[in-house]
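Lab notebook, design round three. We kept the backbone fixed and only want residue identities now. Task for the bench partner: fill in a sequence for the structure below.
Input structure tokens:
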């Protein structure tokens, strides 16, 4: 079968298409025929060698995918060959024609959701749900701000927040991105490149500020985030590309919190709860993953450049 392999850490060009052996499941495992694989920013950090935890070389990147179960190992219950699933975690990597997973890493995919949409679920939707409701403890009736909300995590958070009864404020850096956010149902949309957009956000809350911010670029935004929080507000940090300086008095004066979000730290019961909620939302139509761009598997290097570029318009996926 074909798979992307990384023989050495480095620039996107180290992502090479190669022939590798077919996958065989052990007890408690399944092999999924990949129809689409999700591309996440964290995979670019790992590929470059800059991530704290590095896989052994060579390796196949990726943890998100969707497709059909091809083979089932012993002791696997409630999964069958031919079943449509999405993958949230993989033993072998998902940038490939097949991926090897623990049974618990595969989840049923409603027929109304395409494989390309299913590949957008694992990291973005689970991260958004964990960050919003388990770390930031967002509640119905509160106001949430989503910076740069046109990417995979931002769109996921927008849909999840709306379904939970929150007022959603979102920012985008392009006209097309802001149109997408309005189409997805954001109550108010702002241009984060425009002077005075923070003041406009405060005006939209009648000067009170926002209760929750899901922050995907803390090194740029965190210091400003703290100035527009409501009393008791919470910032859930899901992404940062460097250090940032803040004024602790902005936290103190609001009795506010900054909370880190690390998906790897989510417990098994919490993950089960999240995936059950995601299935319900997919099945009833309140969750509709947006696929921005599709690349052939052989163009994984281009997909890695695209996922780190500004102006995302939904999820980037690879199709074998």
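Proposed sequence:
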């Amino acid at each position: 079968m074909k798979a992307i392999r990384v023989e050495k850490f480095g620039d996107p060009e180290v992502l090479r298409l190669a022939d590798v052996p077919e996958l065989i499941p052990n007890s408690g495992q399944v092999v999924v025929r990949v129809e689409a694989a999700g591309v996440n920013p964290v995979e670019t950090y790992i590929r470059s060698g800059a991530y704290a935890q590095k896989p052994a070389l060579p390796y196949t990147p990726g943890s998100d995918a969707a497709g059909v179960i091809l083979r089932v190992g012993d002791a696997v219950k409630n999964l069958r060959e031919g079943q449509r699933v999405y993958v949230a975690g993989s033993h072998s990597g998902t940038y490939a024609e097949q991926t090897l997973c623990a049974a618990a890493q595969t989840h049923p995919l409603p027929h109304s959701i395409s494989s390309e949409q299913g590949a957008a679920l694992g990291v973005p939707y689970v991260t958004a749900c964990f960050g919003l409701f388990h770390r930031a403890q967002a509640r119905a009736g509160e106001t949430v701000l989503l910076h740069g909300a046109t990417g995979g995590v931002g769109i996921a958070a927008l849909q999840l927040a709306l379904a939970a009864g929150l007022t959603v404020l979102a920012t985008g850096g392009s006209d097309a991105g802001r149109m997408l956010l309005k189409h997805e149902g954001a109550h108010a949309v702002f241009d984060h490149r425009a002077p005075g957009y923070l003041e406009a956000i405060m005006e939209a809350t009648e000067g009170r500020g926002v209760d929750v911010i899901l922050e995907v670029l803390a090194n740029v935004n965190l210091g400003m985030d703290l100035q527009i929080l409501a009393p008791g507000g919470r910032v859930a940090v899901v992404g940062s590309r460097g250090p940032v300086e803040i004024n602790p008095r902005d936290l103190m004066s609001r009795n506010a919190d900054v909370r880190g979000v690390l998906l790897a730290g989510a417990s098994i019961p919490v993950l089960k709860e999240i995936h059950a909620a995601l299935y319900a939302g997919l099945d009833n139509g309140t969750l509709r993953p947006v696929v921005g761009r599709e690349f052939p598997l052989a163009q994984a290097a281009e997909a890695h450049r695209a996922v780190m570029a500004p102006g995302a318009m939904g999820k980037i996926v690879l199709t074998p």
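Keep this in mind before ordering anything: The chain has a mean pLDDT of 96.
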